[in-house]
Write a structure and sequence with these properties.
Blueprint: E1 15-18, H1 25-39, E2 45-50, H2 56-69, E3 73-79, H3 82-91, E4 95-99, E5 108-114, H4 127-140, E6 152-154, H5 158-168, E7 177-182, H6 188-195, E8 206-211, H7 233-242, E9 246-250, E10 257-260, E11 266-267, H8 269-286, E12 293-297, H9 303-310, E13 314-318, H10 322-332, E14 336-338, E15 344-346, E16 352-353, H11 355-367, H12 373-378, E17 384-385, E18 389-392, H13 396-407, E19 412-415, E20 420-424, E21 429-435, E22 441-448, H14 451-465
Parallel strand pairs: 2-3, 2-4, 3-6, 7-8, 7-9, 12-13, 12-14
Antiparallel strand pairs: 1-5, 4-5, 9-10, 10-11, 14-15, 15-16, 17-22, 18-22, 19-20, 20-21, 21-22
Helix pairs in contact: 1-2, 1-4, 8-9, 8-11
């Protein structure tokens, strides 16, 4: 048997590759079989759906075939957002997979997997074993069916997903809002009308102005990656042109959401984390929790833990990455978690991330008072942030060592929770240097009490890094 290596597409948290090169239907069928074997799903429900990429229907069918051969009772969900998968895995207590490459270009596709209850499948919780089992099937050239193969049926979860989200955030009594939504030709083009519109459920006091709602996995208008500023420009212009109250931008699989105020200016994910944290703390305390836990990663603004403490919650700082966040959410019984990358996690959503639920919280906060979003959001952004700045550095460890030599002292705290974080003792600034695991980049994120301090800090650090 020839050795098969799938490491080009199996990553730490999911599978992602170029269609026809590192991922194809044969590989996907083997992964479906391995998914059932490794997670012990013979005789149990297995859910599978996908996004609007051209290869997704073929891959859904291939995964279902492999999973059923090994005894899985497969239910295909058709077109779904990633948070729809998490909903289905949580509400139905079943393991599942969705085909998506999130914000990656059109030639990519991949697989995000979850255990029953929407627990993540990562390299530390089954993904490495799934890779090995799939490689074995591919080397053998055959997937032997079990004595009693499973069956393949269809299921639609869109209405149930929409009803569940509406049960968590009541928007029926807010003031009327005009909302521009940029779906980026991704799955938010399907989920937004279902959750915020009137296509499935009764209408809300929202006038939705759609931008690129046509499902098209070739992304004809712009990449579905709102983290890049140039991909927000159409939304920013549309918000101003339509005189809208707010703009929402989703990534390709609609698990992340970015927010634009009425002036066309981005509201930082840290500010959204603070805003949603405030609502979730208040709700949890009203239900009798003494100090509700809020998770934030170490690159989120320091305004977040300060607000959490002020409102009677308990902030917990974590590494970057959804598998870490979800694990700590579960350990701590946290009510909410947020990341600088616009992933937002909710206890009421099985500790999983959902951009739509975060957007609903923002709409509820905005529509529950009279201030425009630019004023409402200002109190959540008291500091000046650099955003993420990349430096191409071959010897990343040496670059960090040079910075440490420059900044080390009694008035600077240094920790290595994730990369290296330097913090001024007086709280006036902090910055983090994190090496990319996949590229020759050293990533800088910083924050300071004013722009002059931040710019001086940024220029000094980047000069040392790039020396």
């Amino acid at each position: 048997m020839a050795a098969i290596d799938l490491s080009a597409s199996f990553k730490a948290y999911d599978v992602r590759g170029i269609v026809g090169e590192t991922i194809d239907a044969t590989i996907v069928e083997a992964v479906g079989a391995a998914f059932v074997d490794v997670l012990g799903l013979a005789g149990r429900d297995v859910l599978v759906g996908g996004d609007m990429r051209p290869s997704s229907p073929e891959f859904i069918a291939a995964f279902a075939k492999g999973a059923a051969a090994r005894g899985g009772k497969v239910e295909t969900l058709g077109l779904i957002s990633t948070d729809e998968l998490y909903y289905a895995c949580g509400a139905l207590d079943a393991a599942g997979a969705t085909f998506t490459a999130s914000h990656n270009p059109a030639q990519y596709n991949g697989i995000k997997m979850a255990k029953a209850g929407a627990q993540p499948v990562s390299s530390e919780s089954g993904l490495a074993e799934i890779q090995a089992a799939a490689e074995a099937y591919l080397a053998a050239g055959v997937i032997e069916p079990v004595g009693e193969p499973g069956r393949i049926a269809e299921r639609d979860v869109l209405r149930d997903y929409a009803e569940y989200l509406r049960s968590l955030v009541d928007l029926s009594g807010i003031r009327p809002l005009k909302v521009v939504v940029d779906a980026g030709n991704g799955m938010a083009g399907l989920t937004t009308p279902a959750v915020l519109g009137d296509q499935i459920l009764p209408g809300l006091p929202l006038e939705i102005v759609p931008l690129y709602f046509e499902l098209d996995g070739t992304f004809p208008n712009h990449p579905a990656n709102p983290l890049e500023p140039e991909n927000l420009r159409d939304l920013q212009a549309a918000v101003v042109r339509h005189g809208a109250d707010i703009g929402l931008a989703f990534d390709g699989d609609a698990d992340r959401c970015f927010v634009i105020d009425e002036k066309g200016e981005p509201v930082s994910p840290s500010a959204i984390t603070g805003l949603v944290a405030r609502r979730e703390i208040a709700r949890a305390r009203a239900a009798g929790e003494d100090h509700p836990v809020i998770i934030h990663n170490l690159i989120t603004s320091r305004a977040v833990p300060e607000l959490v403490v002020h409102d009677g919650g308990r902030p917990v700082r974590t590494r970057v990455g959804h598998s870490f966040i979800k694990a700590v959410m579960a350990e701590e019984g946290a009510v909410f978690g947020g990341e600088h990358s616009a992933h937002y996690y909710f206890r009421d959503f099985w500790n999983a991330d959902t951009g739509m639920l975060a957007a609903m919280h923002v709409l509820a906060a905005l529509g529950g008072q009279e201030l425009p979003l630019s004023e409402l959001g200002a109190e959540y952004e008291p500091y000046v942030s650099s955003g993420e700045l990349n430096s191409e550095v071959e010897d990343k460890a040496a670059a960090v060592a040079r910075v440490r030599e420059e900044f080390e002292g009694d008035d600077v705290a240094i920790d290595e929770l994730d990369g290296t974080t330097f913090s001024a003792a007086d709280g006036s600034w902090w910055f983090n240097l994190r090496p990319s695991n996949t590229e020759p980049f050293l990533r800088f994120n910083g924050e300071a009490k004013d722009r002059a301090t931040l710019e001086s800090l940024r220029d000094n650090v980047l000069a040392i890094v790039r020396a």
